[in-house]
Amino acid sequence: MSNPKSRGRVLRRAAAAAVIAGTAISVAPAAQAAPQTLPERLTRAVTADNIHRHLIALQRIADTNGGSRAAHTPGYQKSLDYIAGKLRAAGFQVNTPEFTYNRVVVDSAVATAGSVRVVPTQMTDSPNTPAGGVSGPLVVLPTDATPGCQPEDYAGLNARGAVVLIKRGGCPFTQKHNVAADAGAVAALIYNHVDGPGLGGIDPAQARIPTSGLTTAEGLALTAAAGTQATVDVRTHKELTTSRYLVTQTRTGRADNVVLAGAQLDSLPTNAGINDTGASSGALLELALQLGSSPRVGNAIRFAWWGAEDADKTAAGAYLRSLTFEQQLDIALYLNSNSIASKNAGYFVYDGDNSSGTAGPMPYGSAQIERAFATYLNGRAIPTEDTNFDRQWDHTQFITAGIPTGGLYAGSFRPKSEAQAAKWGGTAGVSFDKCHQQVCDNLGNVDRTALDRNADALASVIGGYALSTEDVNGVPPRWRRAFDRAAAKPAAVTALGGSE
C-alpha cells in the first residue's frame, strides 16, 4: 500500500512545478502550437529593415555634421541623442556619463619621393618626425612571405640613413620596425597588403624611428620611386577631450546577474562608420526596443554604446573603473559585436575557448558564450570560424576584469580566402570589408543578409542569457530556484515536526 504522506508530497511538488512553469497539470490539445521562447520571439522581432532605418539615421547625422561621427564631434553627440531618444520613448532610463580621453590630433602627415606624394597614418606609439621631417633615399624591401622581418632582408641594400618601404605581413609591426632601425633607417613606411588603410601600432618600449602606415595603392606608387630622395613628415599630439557614452538597463530581471551587451558608436573622423560601427549599434538599439524596458526575464539586460574605442577603448575602460568590485561581480557576462554587416561577409565568433591557440587564457564562461553563438548560426546552416579577440576593441577591458566575454564579427580588412568564399559566398582575395575605416564606409557598404543573420544571433543569445546564465557562471534560472524552494518546503516542515 502506498504512503499517503509520500503521495501528498509528490502531488504538491508536481503542482508547484506546474505553477512555476505557467502550465496546468492537464494535457494540452495535441494540435496546439508550443509557445515561442524569448529567444525565438526576439529573433522574429528584430528585423534588418528596422535596423537599416537606424543606419539611415546615422548616415544622415554624419552627412549633416561634417561627414563624421567621431567621439569629439557634434555627429557623435547627435548619434548618442538619437539612441537615447529612442530608448527613453520606449520606457528605458538612460544614463550618459562623461569620460575623458586623449584625442590624437594630426599636425603633419605627408611623405614624398620623387614626384609621388602620399598621406601616411602614424602608427600608434610611433615617435614623431622632427618638424620638416626626415629625409633619405627611398629603399624598397623585397616582397617575399616575410618582408622586412629578418636582418637578411636588408642584405645588399644600403638602408643606413634611408627611408625604408616595407610590405605588411609575415610578422608584427614592431618586428619590422626593429629590423629597420637596426639597419640604420631614419623612418619606416609599411604599406598594406590588402585594400584598406595602413593601420596598427608598435611597442612603445621599443619605438626608435618614426613608423607609419600606407594603403596598398600608396605603397605601390612609392615603389615606383625607389632610389629617389624621400622625405617623411608625420607628427601628432594629444589633447585631453571630454565625451559621453550611454548605458541603460531593463527595469526587470536580477540586478546582481546582469547580461551586458555593448557596441562602439563613434566613427573615425574621416567617415560615417556605417558598418564599423553603425551596424552593431543599430542592431543593439533595435534589440533593446523589441525587448522592451520591462520584459519577463530572469536576469536584467544592460545595453551600452561606447565612444573613443580607437583611442584605447576609453569609454569601456572608464565605465569599468566607475564600478566597485562588487558591482563588477553583478555583470554575469559581456557580449560585444563589431562590423557585423561587412559587404564580403564572413561569420566569425570570438575564440572563447582558445582553440586556435592565439586568444590566450580567457575568463571562465567565455567558451560557453562562443558555443552559444556558434550553435545558433550552425543550426541555420551558417558555418562559423573562430576569430581572435582583437585587443584594440572594447571587450579587452572586460577580459582584463575577468568577466566572461564573447561576440560576433563579419570581418574587416583581411582578404577572404578561397575556402571561406566556397562556404560563405562572396569574393576570394578581396577584403571582408574593403571600406573598413575608409570614406566609403557608408550606407552602400552594408550586406543586409549578414546584418540580418548576425542580429538574429545576437537576439537569440541575449534572449537566452536573459533567462539563464547557468552554463556561464553557475547561477540557475529563476524557475529552477523557485522550484527548488517549493519542493524543499514540505520536507522542511516535516523535519520540524509538522503534519501533512
From TrEMBL:
Q: Which residues form the PA domain?
A: 134-222
What start and end residues bound the annotated signal peptide?
1-33
- The residues covered by the Peptidase M28 domain are 250-461
SUPFAM superfamilies, per database record = PA domain (SSF52025), Zn-dependent exopeptidases (SSF53187)
One GO molecular function term of this record is:
metalloexopeptidase activity
Q: Which GO terms describe its biological process?
A: proteolysis
The protein's UniProt keywords, in alphabetical order, are:
Signal
User: What name has this protein been given in UniProt?
Assistant: Amidohydrolase
Species the sequence originates in:
Kibdelosporangium phytohabitans
